[in-house]
């Protein structure tokens, strides 16, 4: 081992630099990854009318196919967590992109509900494994002054992907058939995976934590600061040594982080339950108040439109105020919007405005949860923490539509459905307040132990 003459804290170094073209490249790649991830996740929904007619089955029978995709997303995220630490985050991201790209192309061969469901399950596993790594990569290359905003910014790729899927489906399906949607959904991630393989680095703190060769770390830092020399430099992290001794699941479920982990899972699960319930059943609920299908659909789109404003706004606020309080307040705002909306059955304009407010709070908060997890866990558990939170939370995406169908079957009133959703969203807010309290106690305990050893 060569002698080193100086030590460089990589986190502090990134914080002190301007945001360079190389970091812009990472941002764009992560944004596109999220966009194509969501494109593939929602693609089957845009071809259901065509397939139902071609296969002579009812649209309702595609419910299990869509559930299989969501289940795959959850399983993929849970599997990816340990793999991020056993292999490396970038390797998992690229392999996952190749996987869901090939499975998307394979979807073109489906000729029944069963085969379609299997292909969507496999595609979902790849999708769920790729997404958490994007948040980790962006978090570790973003200066602290703007990391919340940038991590949230890549999350907005979700809306771009969903919108692009709708526009592409409308343009290509009538002329080239339903398979054309999955050709694009398969080729694009494979191409982007190749680009990311050569154009993006491994997460910086991951390389330092795993004691990668100094010249490989220096090569990445030179792309951020070309004029600086890193000869004879030893790269370190500012995290305490205890946080670097464990990795992956052992960190996420360790005594110090266990309570916060459970609260993150609870918050994401509750939020996903309400969000997917609203996506699936809001048009039907609004139509039940006397609105037309077009009016109900337009009102529902405000849920996502509010999410854009919420995601960027919360990213800015988390950089300036306590992030747990910011997201808890966002969930509370979303819950208030939902509750008021439930009492506007005869006023479509006010109902739409309340849905927009709910979108700012709920959609924006969900889009901010990846940063919340990234900032909560140390480097050794960051990727696993994000992926497991999303994996557990996505089961809410399965529960939500089922709960909505049950309430409609039991003839719950319009206001009652919205009141129940409000309570679930407020449970997400309460979970984050409990996470904040648990984190404060854990930090105080660590400080006390350090003081005693000193």
TrEMBL record:
Protein keywords: Membrane, Transmembrane, Transmembrane helix
InterPro entries cross-referenced by the UniProt entry: MFS (IPR011701), MFS_dom (IPR020846), MFS_trans_sf (IPR036259)
Molecular-function GO term, any one: carboxylic acid transmembrane transporter activity
Protein name from the UniProt record: MFS transporter
Bilayer topology term: Multi-pass membrane protein
Organism: Massilia cavernae
One cellular component (GO) term of this entry: plasma membrane
Residue stretches making up the Major facilitator superfamily (MFS) profile domain: 26-440
UniProt-annotated location(s): Membrane
Location, primary (coarse class): membrane
Claim: Transcription is one of the keywords in the record: no
